[in-house]
Amino acid sequence: MRIGELSKATGVSSRALRYYEQQGLLRSERRPNGYREYAPESVEVVAFVQDMFHAGLSSGVIRDILPCAGDARPRGDCTALLARVQQVRDELVRQERTIAERRRRLDSYLADGLSDTSHPLAGLSAAGRPAPDPSPR
Amino acid sequence: MRIGELSKATGVSSRALRYYEQQGLLRSERRPNGYREYAPESVEVVAFVQDMFHAGLSSGVIRDILPCAGDARPRGDCTALLARVQQVRDELVRQERTIAERRRRLDSYLADGLSDTSHPLAGLSAAGRPAPDPSPR
DNA sequence: CTAAACCTTGACGTCGGTGTCAAGGTCAAG
DNA sequence: CTTGACCTTGACACCGACGTCAAGGTTTAG
């Protein structure tokens, strides 16, 4: 299939597909005329890549773990890559905690931070000026 | 206090402080020589701003809610802004769910995605080439 | 006088996944 | 032949919170 078809099939733009290839996330053959030719499995590959992007992984990480995603690869040298995925997972756990902490912080501000006088943030209502004529230079 | 002092007091770079001012997050007077002069409360303001940044808020949102952070402001017209904070909070909740979902996805891939044949991602081991001589142009 | 440590504004660089435009080649239909 | 849909590579634009360098002014210490 050509790039336009793959694009329609996956909902990913042609631009993105070329980017994936450039990043080593996607393979393609070339027709005599220079057009990219994709294997049908490319649809799944793109779906996987999208999945990983949605999972918050960077293209570098995805590139590294891709060789492990295929069933044709041995699993021997994949332990390191699996470790990397594990690492990413741990990072996600950390992110979960971070987000939760942020929410808690906001909850705190929502609960009492804006209604008591413990925050010395008075007189900020006019803060929105870039600089009132800084001084004649 | 001058910008360097405020920087040291808050741990925020001078560049960032000027950026905050430019974004309407921080106020300063000007000395005759053009130097910025900060009120002592600025330390708290910067801390608050940092807090909000760490909470994931954008400078725009922070600018909007800042007038409500001071105890000298009425709370009447703040309901809308509080609603905005609430909105951000809700967004964080959504993010929590998203992250959790991502982690679950990765867990899934870690558990079985890489060891069975349900994922048709074979033969990707050589995906890491930008393009093997695209064709003579 | 001079060095050094401050300060000023302005402007460009960063990162990453994509949109978008430019300038062209290819191919099938009319 | 022409049109138009498709493809190619290349390159700039974007967002956001700054880092960093440039080119200068001010003040203090020696």
Helix content of chain A: 55-70%
Side by side, the strands of the main sheet of chain A go 1-2
The succession of helices and strands of chain A, N to C, reads HHEEHHH
Oligomer: homodimer
Shape of chain A: elongated
Q: DSSP strand (E) fraction of chain A? A: under 5%
The number of helices of chain A is 5
Radius of gyration of chain A, in Å, reads 25 Å
The average pLDDT of chain A is 76
Q: Please report the total strand number of chain A as a whole number.
A: 2
Uncertain parts of chain A: 71-75, 122-137
Distance between the termini of chain A: 64 Å
Q: State the major sheet of chain A.
A: 2 strands, antiparallel
Structural class of chain A: mainly alpha
The greatest inter-chain interface is formed by: A-B, 70 and 70 residues
Q: How is this fold's topology laid out?
A:
Two copies of one chain form a homodimer.
Chain A: H1 3-10, H2 14-22, E1 29-30, E2 36-37, H3 42-54, H4 59-69, H5 79-113
Antiparallel strand pairs in A: 1-2
Helix pairs in contact in A: 4-5
Chain A binds a DNA duplex (30 and 30 nucleotides) through residues 2-4, 13-16, 18-19, 23, 31, 33-36, 53, 58-59, 134-135, 137.
